[in-house]
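User: Hi! Is it possible to get a structure for several chains at once, not just one? Here's what I have:
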Amino acid sequence: MRAFWKAFRRNRLALVGGVVVALLAALAILAPAIAPWDANRPDVKKILDAPSQIHPLGTDLLGRDVLSRMLYGARVSLAVGFVSVGIASLIGTMLGAAAGYNGGVVDGAIMRLVDLMLVFPRFFLLLAVLAFLRPSIWTIMAVIGLTGWMGVARLVRAEFLALKEREFVLWSQAVGASGFRVIWRHILPNAMAPVLVAMTLGIPAAILTESGLSFLGLGVQPPHASWGNILNEGKDAIEIGWWLSVYPGLAILVTVLSYNLLGEGIRDALDPRLRQSVGRIAARR
Amino acid sequence: MFRYALRRLLLAFPLLIGITFVSFVVIHLAPGRPGEVVTGELSAESQKELWQMLEKEYGLDKPLHVQYWTWLGRLARLDFGRSFSPDARPVLQKIGERLPITLLLNIIEMLIIIAFAVPIGVLSATRQYSLFDKVTTVFVFVGFATPDFWLALLLMILFGVQLGWLPISGLRSLNWEYLSFWRQQWDFAGHLLLPIVVATFGGLAGFSRYMRQSMLEVIRQDYVQSARAKGLPERVVIGKHALRNAMLPIVTVLGLSLPGLIGGSVIVESIFAIPGMGQLMVQAVFERDYPVIMGNLVIVSTLTLGANLLADLTYSLVDPRIRVGARRGRR
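Assistant: Yes, the chains can be modeled jointly so their relative placement is included. Here is the combined structure:
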């Protein structure tokens, strides 16, 4: 842990990323306290006001304060990022562990399932599933999680394949530990490093996906604010309200960039050898 | 080579079945009561009607395995049913109209990505830590983090609204029919420019990175050293010996990133109002046009599977080691 911290601290970009991530989380949590205006209160006298002292980032088509809406949008982005990546990691870890530990038929079946899921262009699959469901923040989280576990499954499987031949695992099997115990107590803790990195890099990917869906009008539904659906309004007001398009997108860019820098920093500090495998898998959105 | 190709083809077949199975499962996400299929936008009456159409189309009242079997039989005959929208045209026809433009866009994107990413990657690898390398690294990180729809909006505001240089929607101007042939081509190219820039941006960042990484690994190899040692000019060492080997993994990555590229068409086509498959998909989702949605999903994923297969075969063609490895039973 100390070696990790020492290596991590040397990476200035990763530190900056980490600070921005923490700052964003604080802003999201404190949104109700620091938002200057009520994010959902329309005002017909202030429709599409340009940024000013009173409304630092302007107002939208209904006269709502964009800064306040963006603060609430930060909550949506972070929540979707964490929960959907949590779901994906859970599924991916379980299936990857089952495949790597058991090998044989189980492994074959699970890996073919992974191959199959990877054949679907993700946005088409997401849209097809969403067409049958009521769009809400919960369905978005579930759907992004359920279509994004394949990378983690592959990583965990690879770790398990390597670890299960190691002596400490063979010894615990020899003294009669159950399969579950061997996995849970001995292999899994040693296999978590790449999962952690994949999670950090998965959050920004999920945030991008959510904002894309909300931008199309199939994600978080108005009146709830999300960076993606503010941008959707920005498209409608493209000739007048540039601030509706510029700021939320900038927020997405900064957030995703910070998470990526942080994730890569953690990866390099944990184990430079991971660079290849995790980077390739996580970068594929 | 032939045996390898046959093997890959046989392995692709179960995936094809899998695609139909997953798509079939998606239909059944629709909860069992008519009122719950759609959100509140439609009246109870039309919801009921929609449900009955769905029931008839897929025989939802029959047992599951029977449903799946009949659906599979229709797919085998390329019968995707008729659209639920008022025109009620066959789904295959609707998709067929829109497939060429999506394919065209994706192929152009792919060519542009390769044409730029390879030299960028090679240059930043051979000049590691130079100014050029640092600038491209920044570009890569920003490229990864830029939402494509945001980039599209910004470019539309700048070139479409502020400067008025480029059209921001559709494929043709209103006066298309009155233009001369070359004017028409010029007009078409102008309409495609922004969508292509937007669609290639993210991919370009990713591929330059892979290319750099791959090149960095290759130039440390012994055969590159020995090429230098026998006195070949650096241009040949890098351009021939190193580049050829560094390109190998790129073929695989290209195949793997296809679904992402094609999926990107959804957003780009919706923003720029390009009548391709992505736009069709979004429209179908809003209109709850289930046959079109299912047809789209099956066709797009089958195409992706085919393209993956093609990438695999290309890879084995350029790298004989793969073929030999496969024969030994390694996948």
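Chain A has a mean pLDDT of 83. The first helix of chain A runs from residue 2 to 10.

User: Great, thank you!
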